[in-house]
Amino acid sequence: MKALFIGGTGTISSAVASLAVQNGIELTLLTRGTHPKFAPQGAELITADINDEDAVLKLIGERKFDVVADFIAFVPMQVERDIRLFSGKTRQYIFISSASAYQKPAVNYRITESTPLRNPYWRYSRDKIECEEALMSAYRNDGFPVTIIRPSHTYGDTSVPVSVHGKKGSWQVLERIRTGKPVIVHGDGLSLWTFTHNSDFAKAFIGVMDNPHAIGEAVHITSDETITWNAAFASIGKAMGIEPNLIHIPSEFLAAYDPELLGNLIGDKANSVVFDNSKIKALVPGFCAGVRFDQGVKRSVDYVTGHPECQIPDPDFDIWCDRVISAYCSGLLK
Fewer beta carbons within 10 Å, N or C terminal of the chain? Predict the structure, then answer.
């Protein structure tokens, strides 16, 4: 199998790329070359910006691929570009959408692929929905061989997944846990959430590649394990050997102090979600996510605490947390 990945060095795509090479797939990565250390040995590298359509067209020429997967398309104009670039050059085009596109607020806690797509709170999700619509229109009208994949909260070894963090990642949250400072958890911490380790996601993704039953289909790939946010932080604390000092603050209050959290929380993490994975299991017989969150997050904590390059301080986020916590607690005392 010949495959082209646009991206290939991110949390999701690096795991898929590594497993693809292990499975003997002839893999080409088209990236800007900013994270070469995450590219697997054995993959061909094309250094280019996919947004420079003319340059990419010259580099790939008339090459054809069994599978083209774009991990870094976020808005309709980007998938429209891909349709122009790869029509007639691939048997399957895979678009990475997002499970955050599913209906918010949710009517039913259990999510299937037939759950309506609607998210009035998050522009990111609405853009993904528009991308899906453009691609499915190209499939219906012109036979463009699209498969849509909807990940949920997928994580790997290089970052610890948390609900509220700053622009520099989750390290500052770990520092707050380590030093005993209060750590913000949205709501009461009892909403249900699904974390998927990128190694599990990769197994399902490889099974979808060049799979004729997946053409024209949308499918999510997640773990079957669902836990509360309180349980998630308990697992993180256990991995660190420290019991976290959690403070629960309503999502609406947090969003008032940071409008970006309107989408990230109210449009996503504040909702309880349980995914029905029957469809991916039908497409990829034998698939089952095998990494429990407590196991996977221990790997993440061990990696991050052992690699200084992952330990990026975020003093602005630390100050923001203290300010929000102070304001919330002051209100409770009035």
Answer: C
